[in-house]
Specification:
alpha/beta, six-stranded parallel β-sheet, elongated, binds adenosine-5'-diphosphate-glucose
Length: 601
Amino acid sequence: YGVIDAFCARHPSFERLEGRMVVEVRPSMVNKGSAVPWVRGRAGADARIIALGDDVTDEHMFVALSGADEAVVVRHGDARPSHARWELDGTDEVHELLAWIHGLRSGQTPPPTVLPREVVPKTPAEQNASHDLVVISNRLPELRSFEGEEGGRKRNVGGLVSALEPALRARGGMWLGWSGRTVPDGQQIESGLLEDVGGESGGEQRTVQLASLDYKESWYRSYYGGFCNGTLWPLFHSFPSRVTFKDDDWRAYVEVHEAFADVTTRLAGPRSMLWAHDYHLLLFARAMRRRGHAGPIGHFLHIPFPSFDIFSMLPWATEVLDAMLDYDLLGFHTPGHVANFLHCASALLPAKVADDVVQHRGRSCHVAAMPIGILPDAFQEPPEPSAVDEIEGLMRSLGDAQLVLGVDRLDYTKGIPERLIAFGRLLEMQPEWRRKVSLVQVSVPSRADVPLYAEQRATIESIVGRINGEFGEASWVPIRYLYRSYPRAQLAQLYRAARVGYVTPLRDGMNLVAKEYVAAQDSENPGVLLLSQFAGAAVEMREAVLTNPYHADGMARDLDRALRMGLEERRARHSRLLASVQRSNAVTWAEGFLDALAACR
Ligand code: ADQ
């Protein structure tokens, strides 16, 4: 690349082009399109040209043909849009076709063994689906998130959905993800557009479309359960002892990216802005560039990016990094994650690394810390009367005890056992808190079919049983453990009732619960956020009481301090935290990312 760059710098009349597995350097006035009139000039005006090509640069040639000529795109398992009318699969088919034509011209008339097939035209819906913005993630937002009606207005409930929906609407965007279905290997997987959702009349609002693809059963096992949740999730959260490395899982990871890229190529315009999410899609830009996608492609990592020591344990570390650099923009939650990524890039690749950009293979990949936010107002809305009863019942059962609240997906990264143990230590070290404080831990079921997660659930239940058995009394239960999910209105009520928001993950990309807790507080009498120093949220939320979840005695002391904090200090801390949660919210995050992605080009 150095030689090519130096040559192009010395010869400005030459340009360089990235093709399929090739770099082309050529006079900038010449392309395969200008070859068409040259050939015609020599073959005679009546000659019909058959043009065959598999590369994106061959499209120039197809466009330059006249109506009497024929263009054949040669596929290599891809489905990228092409100007060709016909298609063949692979070079063997090309060879057979040429042999047949040669035979005809030599006077033989054997039947053709292969003829080009007409490119299947897109359905009208797919033709219209040339979206300016396509969001790609493993999971699709809950359909009901887009469909619910509230006072005549469309409403959605998921965090990421809320953040992205305004951006998708403004740009007429599409969201592509796994359908949630698996099909037996060997059977055809379905992919394509789902029904339009959330169309709203008036103004500049445009329809948001959802599209999905099925997973093969082996992909669910090896990609989703294997490489995503058995390799990348524990590794990126710095739990190397929980990591598995399997070649089959890596192969499935690569394969699923190809499937996502095929569907995206079919549905997106060749210059659409693509925004991929999370560790499930680290290789997506590479797969799209190989299909000739020319528009900007960005990625946001919702989990931490680990240190070099941890990341370099991944047997495919170099491949993953190299592919990530095909994105135009990589967003992370914190400057620490950005620094880890840059360190890995400079240590593992011959890349030029600066503060916010990595140059590699002639491309520039921008890197930025962009902490995700929430929609804070949603946690201040008065609840529906029907949502009040259950939470009021729970509060009544606590009597006068102050509420310490934990809310998480049930995941070993969230540090739930450590949190319970520290609560037990508080009751042991400071017996005066007995009967005066209760911990409510709400855990939403997650990845329940994965053995590690089932184990985690059993561990939590046994710790709850032990502490309640040791300290509980007839009129007081120290820990209430609720294994279920709550609608947002009820969560907001719980947050507001809690004197301490007990948010102590062992490692977390950001942690939205911390922000939701702050947003839901009564500003006149707010509770205290007790936050793990290892959550990404701790970078912005310095006015929380920060704690080390690995140190039970220390965490018990921090909990004691949070419970004793006076009104004045609580208010002062809360008002600064709330200002930051309001300023840097979900919508500013999504728009900020998309603006930065547009600015990369
Ligand atoms: P998660 O690991 O899922 O997200 P988090 O940021 O805490 O973690 O978000 C969890 C969401 O689920 C919150 O919106 C919360 O309200 C909701 N939730 C949790 N328990 C619930 C319950 N019992 N009932 C109902 N809702 C519940 C990943 C990363 C995070 C990062 C986010 C966003 O792991 O670090 O903050 O993505 O980027």
